[in-house]
Design brief:
- Helices cover about 35% and strands about 25% of the residues.
- It has about 300 residues and is of the alpha+beta class.
- It has three domains: about 80 residues, Rossmann fold, CATH 3.40.50.20; about 130 residues, D-amino Acid Aminotransferase, Chain A, domain 1 (2-Layer Sandwich); about 60 residues.
- Strands 8, 9, 10, 11, 12 and 13 form a six-stranded antiparallel β-sheet that branches.
- Strand 1, helix 1 and strand 2 form a beta-alpha-beta unit.
- Helix 1 crosses helix 10.
- The chain is globular, with a radius of gyration of 19 Å.
- The mean pLDDT is about 90.
Length: about 300
């Protein structure tokens, strides 16, 4: 049985604060389960991280969010050190974080995705590159960081050099109206479907993590056929990228038509997070969930 677990949290991405909250919740739960838990606030010093990983833990719980924590970087380091870790491996993590590549693979697997273009900031500033309404997204961020909806008739600046720190290329995606749905996948099964309601323009960073930012309806009131299809597509997306452990697939539902927005290989573990809530609905308490994740930790083959 796994006894000594190191929990990686913090990091230096735009999602640092959320990661710290996720990590603290995991540390508490694993400690209550009788495990010897070390919490590690990861800084941009790999030598220091390797020192903290000695003596070698039985497993690492990766509670990092965002770039470098869920895009394959820390997964590659743990593969080299031969320390089993939770969530997906290097390749699946990198693919999921690269939105254009993930969408290409999803489309090839028959999973409906929204129409999109990859353009430069200069092209967007020069005029609409797609009929409004559309969505502007960074190519490789999580938690809706940097996401902006451009509605019909809007005249405000989309962004400028000081307000877009996400690189020179941008994803522009057709806006899909309708319900916001999410499905957690644990191993090889979907746990259920949650509808996310928010008074904000969309399920943005504040709606995800601020108290009262959103309301989660579990199970979603969408009818059995749409619910079963959402769960099927979530498992298919998980398998298409080669994910393991726990992932979360986010959808828009326009009528009875589902569109996969993205798959999150490092879902949040905060008190307001969707996966723990959905697992609890499925009869899996938070402590049982994180213990399962640790006991199923592995390295890439």
């Amino acid at each position: 049985m796994t006894r000594h677990v190191a929990v990686l949290m913090g990091g230096w991405s735009a999602e640092r604060e959320v990661s710290l909250v996720s990590g603290a919740a995991v540390v508490h739960a694993l400690g209550n389960a009788g495990m010897d838990v070390a919490s590690i606030d990861v800084q941009r010093d790999m030598g220091a991280l390797m020192t903290r990983l000695y003596p070698r833990p039985d497993a690492v719980f990766n509670a990092l969010h965002g770039r470098f924590g869920e895009d394959g970087c820390v997964q590659g380091l743990l593969d080299i050190l031969d320390i089993p870790y939770t969530h997906s491996g290097l390749l699946a993590s990198a693919l999921a974080m690269d939105k254009p590549m993930a969408k290409r693979l999803f489309a090839d697997a028959g999973i409906p995705v929204a129409e999109h273009k990859i353009v430069t900031r200069e092209e967007i500033l020069a005029g609409d590159v797609m009929e409004r309404p559309y969505v502007i997204k960074p190519l490789n961020e999580g938690s809706s960081v940097g996401v902006h909806i451009v509605p019909e008739g809007a005249n405000e600046p989309l962004f400028n050099d000081t307000g877009w720190p996400f690189g020179g290329r941008v994803m522009v995606e057709k806006f899909i109206p309708g319900l916001e749905l999410t499905v957690a996948v644990m191993g090889d099964r979907a746990l259920g479907v949650t509808e996310i309601k928010t008074g904000r323009e969309f399920y943005d960073y504040d709606a995800k993590y601020a108290d009262g930012g959103s309301q989660h309806v579990v199970p979603a009131d969408i009818g059995p056929d749409v619910s079963e299809e959402a769960m099927r597509l979530a498992v298919l997306a998980h398998e298409t990228l080669g994910c393991r452990g726990v992932s979360r697939a986010d959808f828009r539902c326009d009528g009875d038509k589902l569109y996969l927005l993205e798959i999150n290989t490092q879902p949040g573990m905060t008190p307001t997070s969707l996966v723990p809530e959905q697992a609890d609905y499925a009869g899996i308490p938070f402590q049982e969930l994180v213990v399962w994740m640790v006991e199923n930790a592995e390295c890439d083959a």
